[in-house]
Structures are given as C-alpha cells and as structure tokens.
Amino acid sequence: MEARSSSAALVAAAVVVALLALAPEASRAERFIVGDAARWTWGYNYTDWVIKKGPFFQNDTLVFMYDPPNATVHAHSVYMMRNAADYQSCNLKAAKLVAGVTQGAGSGFEFVLRKRKPHYFVCGERGGIHCTMGQMKFIVKPKSSACRDD
Ligand SMILES: [Cu+2]
To answer: What sequence ranges are listed for the domain Phytocyanin (predicted)?
Structure first.
C-alpha cells in the first residue's frame, strides 16, 4: 500500500516535470491583434505598428480582425504577396489569398508565423487600392524562436 502510493506520487511528479518542461515553449509564443484597437482597417499605418510591436518570432500568431461586408462597412481581406516588388507596387496578380472578406469576423482570423521568411501581408480589396491608398500592408520577418530571450 505504502509502496503503491509512493510510486503513484512519483508518476505524478514526473507528469508535473514534463508539463513544466513544455510550458515555457508554449507560453513564449505571443499573439498579436493586428492594428490593436484599430484592427485591420483602411488608413492605419501598419508599417509603424510592426516597428512598435516587433520583433516577431516564429510561432507567434497574428490575428486579423475586420467586419464582414455590410451596408456601412467596406470589405477587407488578407493576401500574401509573393515578393518585395509585388508588395511595393501592391500588384495582386500573383498574390495568395490568406483570409477572405468574411473570415475576420468574430474573434478574427489567426495566422501563425511558422516560417522564418518575410511575410508580405496586404488587403486585396478594390483591386489593390486598400494596399496603395489605404496603407493596408506590412512585412513581418519572424526571428528564430530560439532567439527569444528578452
Ligand atoms: Cu481593406
């Protein structure tokens, strides 16, 4: 009886140690609402937002929040540009749809930064006008999660 309960305690202790070992990795990834209170909208400077919020690390999550189109709200979306040139010129021809006009509703659309490459995010609405005139564009290049020690 005594031996059984102490081995159960050992197992419990081992589980706690295993969970503690996992916890830092999980809790270190951060979650960002793109634009904070402004959310994903026309006319906000997301390039400044990235400078203010960065650096970003691998496995951080970006949350894009925007209302679905209705009588009073313009549609927004999220596209990823293939390269810096397309990003600069807001050329959507080769862009990849990340989140459609209804996907930013509710708790928003979550994008996990899994790769350590530049991510060129833009809004693809109105043929690129939200990107050019509306400043709905930003670049994030996540650093290795191993570098997160601040
Ligand atoms: Cu837009």
So the answer is: 30-144
Give per-10-residue mean pLDDT for the chain (150 aa): 61 59 65 98 98 96 95 92 98 98 97 97 97 98 83
Q: Residues with Cβ within 5 Å of ion ligand 1?
A: 76, 123, 125, 130, 136
pLDDT in tens, 22-31: 555 555 899 9
Between CA 42 and CA 133 the distance in angstroms is 8
Write down all domains in the chain, each with its CATH number in brackets.
Answer: 30-147 (2.60.40.420)
Residue 118 CA, ligand 1 centroid: distance in Å = 21
| Predicted confidence (pLDDT) per residue in 78-87, tens digit | 999 999 999 9
